[in-house]
């Protein structure tokens, strides 16, 4: 990209680049064959399903590319304000089916592939997930860029292109074993290397003070890595708009030391390359815990520096003064992991662009906004000052100054309140000083939001309490999460989607979930109800096949499917669930065979990954698998109770599992789950929630009505008192919980010693997650679920009514609220609507 590009004078060139997407079978076939033969050097006779996928995917991407180019060109031509969603995680999953649906080419490709003997479903199954995220936070980022694209907001995601994404989970002898996710081993049709978009990123080094301006420095270092951009298209649905996720990869080419090589030092010659590459090699696999490793800090900075340089390079093309940046760019921090973007922007504005401190600070705080996703103390990001000072000396200096000016302004308003100053300082004065990233993010942003109403209230009363007092209520707002109706209904649940489309009259609901309201009028329509039930049964049969294929366990789709799928964490209480299962098993064993025949059949499904270093969570997985082994092979029990742990939970697995649930469990200790987003997906797919009064469960309950949700357990405001009590008093399990413990301790599920630490955490460790408190009401809630499920007609009514009332939980609604209340940005549709 050297020199200025001449304007294109060739009309044919321009016309082709703007031409309509061809939809006829002959053109599609031609492009698939073209890729098969010229991109992959295969003949039609030697085409297997893997190559059929690749050739089709490249063909679809050609169609997407054209729109993508036009979108970028259009937004830069009109000088649209753009939202940059900075997230160290994007849990995208697969793209092929999503792109086919967005382009409305699914039937066409199914036809073309059918002609050569392939089923589209099998071809779709060839794609590997892009699993560049851990859980909720990463998937939320993917839903938000999907909504930005589909709602025509000029918006980009920024992240890292990890060579190894979320690890693959194998279950060996009941234990989780991690294997690397080598997702880039085969060609990836959904990324575009942009070798020309590369930025140098510095580490370590020293500072030289500007002789004229005391706060301006030159940062000199010879540790410089290159971050190179890879772009992933985000197909907008029902629009020609295509969004972008720009991922940085640490480029190593320039780091080969030819001198060392010539001197015979082969390892030394590539040492620089290895050191650089490591930066974007792996995703840290933690969910709601802070790892605090130096490599992680360097990852975060590489990400922030490259992203800020890129945003500024784009802005500078407008020729406007830097202080106008907030008029063209809004940056959203997806939790604290990208917070170094704040001092990095300050550094660029002051040291490189020559702004004064005040101008730079004003520009920065108007540009950034920050989303908090957790209240768990162990997840709070903090970096030791000495580490930060060594790796990022300039940024440490800037953070000190930000803190100084902030504390000075507080001191003026609240003189002599030393306690207050200590509490709000960005630098924590503990044994070793630490930088509190949540405070830095808060001080450097103009808006701070939580992700569900209860969570936003809690953060205002806890970690940001003093900041609310100092900076005002208005800065702290709520943006309840949402999920994409494209992936989480239309793509994963084709049968239910067809029914909704029939009821609505067209497909407009896919971009406007308020249309689901019409389902309410169908609730008494016999035929509709029957089809609704059949769609669920079909999804259950599909999941039963998936379970058989992944675990070898046979389950009957006629049973109640009871599902808990999410990261394994103590606060999410999978332990309580499996203890409930054990208690159920205990009761079944006490019954006579005749009594057992009257019992409702149930399949309890678990899936989820534990962070590699999270021992307790891994023991919970082992317990679930041990229980499954005993229960599933107990001939007395048969189909009355089955327990399944589906290995390697992923976005794609979720797309099979969620549409098949009758009841799903969201049972975190009240006040601990910020929002949850799978709860929304389950209800949108006609499932009912069994949950605590926590996170977005509460708002889901408000929307669907109390008949449509099963709540249990203590309330958030009661938790502190219970915890306090249990610190000083022996927890008392009720009879049911004690029966479950007894069953474990009598070696029913193998050597009880393995599981004793799990029991001890409850009985001797203060029962921090309040299992003894909530277990009785949990068991009662299960009974209520069972009674309701037996009332088949009422259950179908609940299911239809729930879906009809779920509009609020579309990520389109969430993104629109962010756009209006935080980003101050408007849709800028490119081309025409395609619905
Ligand atoms: C999740 N956080 C919340 N963090 O737990 C969940 O309640 C919420 O619905 C969701 O965010 C979206 O708002 C979460 O997923 C992480 O995985 C972090 C990744 C990086 C390290 C620290 C945890």
UniProtKB/TrEMBL annotation:
It catalyses: [(1->4)-alpha-D-glucosyl](n) + phosphate = [(1->4)-alpha-D-glucosyl](n-1) + alpha-D-glucose 1-phosphate. Keywords: Allosteric enzyme, Carbohydrate metabolism, Glycosyltransferase, Pyridoxal phosphate, Transferase. GO terms for molecular function: glycogen phosphorylase activity; pyridoxal phosphate binding. The keyword Iron-sulfur does not apply. Its cofactor is pyridoxal 5'-phosphate. Belongs to the glycogen phosphorylase family. This is Alpha-1,4 glucan phosphorylase. It comes from Coemansia reversa (strain ATCC 12441 / NRRL 1564). The lineage of its organism: Eukaryota, Fungi, Fungi incertae sedis, Zoopagomycota, Kickxellomycotina.
